[in-house]
Amino acid sequence: MKFAMLGAGGIGCLYAARLIQAGHQCVLVARGEHLQALQQNGLLVDHPDTQFHGSVDATDVAGLMKQHSCSSFDLLILGAKGGATQAMLAEMKTWLQGATTPILSIQNGVTNEALIEQQLGVERTIGGLGIYVSGHIVSPGHISAQGAGQIDFGAWPTAQDNPQMATLCQTLAEVFSDAGIPNRLYTDVRYALWRKLVINNGVNPLTALTDLKTGAITTDPILRRTVHTMMEETARAANAAGVSLTKEDVEEMFDLICNFHDIKTSMQVDMERGRTLEVNEICGPVIENCRKINQPAETTELIYKLLVNATQAHPAEI
């Protein structure tokens, strides 16, 4: 199959490497020094189960649209930051509308699929996320990653609502498995997205604010309690949005992050490197949906406010 990885960062490059090693074509869409390194020196991926060093087909968005037709791809995988989704789709609008190629989002947050649907319709939208994985660009062209690197996905918004995409997802599940990408197929992918947000909202903002890795956050008595509270607020927001999350879901996600590798979250790395944070994509839906039912997510609102103030205090760095 032929794939395009839109936003070939740490996690996107890991998945691309596995697909390439399995014999598939994968065009990596990146920018800046990372793109230059990919084009000149190839891709280097360091992962306990995936070692890759070789030349790759890499380009930017403009190059992708000039060098390839959208219809030549079997699947577009959107791995860019959530804050870039709308702008990227707008930039590619004409190119995308000339085909029927579906898009699979593997991004953080619960709002990306709705943006894809708005432009391309449910018949081309696949919801998803990368889970049990951490990956960062160590230096341009060099990726370090850890974790199983699983993709959880499904037809948007549900398999029942989108049977054509549900059938394609069955095929993709086999392709991913054959490429060494663990995966789980959901009939209602919204449940998977909100469960992942439980973890993202629980730890990502706190790691960015404190510059502590997840292990330090989850073993500190006060911060550990804060993580759990923000996870509970996320579950409350999910239920307000019509997605049923239980106390058991919260406890399972809490246990998972407490026993996962001691990692820097993507938001922590973005904070260190002066990049725009995914705080609106991660905290925003929690705050918004809890307000709708007049049960404010007070802890999430506090951490969100502190993060926004911290970034605004150094506007030249973001």
From TrEMBL:
Catalyzed reactions: (R)-pantoate + NADP(+) = 2-dehydropantoate + NADPH + H(+)
Pathway annotation: Cofactor biosynthesis; (R)-pantothenate biosynthesis; (R)-pantoate from 3-methyl-2-oxobutanoate: step 2/2
Entry-linked InterPro entries: 6-PGluconate_DH-like_C_sf, 6PGD_dom2, ApbA, KPA_reductase, KPR-Related, KPR_N, NAD(P)-bd_dom_sf
Keywords assigned: NADP, Oxidoreductase, Pantothenate biosynthesis
Domain Ketopantoate reductase C-terminal span(s) in chain numbering: 188-307
Residue ranges of every copy of the Ketopantoate reductase N-terminal domain listed in the record: 4-157
Molecular function terms from GO: 2-dehydropantoate 2-reductase activity
Domain of life: Bacteria
Enzyme Commission identifier(s): 1.1.1.169
EC top class, as a word: oxidoreductase
SUPFAM superfamilies: 6-phosphogluconate dehydrogenase C-terminal domain-like, NAD(P)-binding Rossmann-fold domains
Purpose: Catalyzes the NADPH-dependent reduction of ketopantoate into pantoic acid.
Family: Belongs to the ketopantoate reductase family.
NCBIfam families for this protein: apbA_panE
Protein name from the UniProt record: 2-dehydropantoate 2-reductase
Species assigned in the record: Vibrio porteresiae DSM 19223
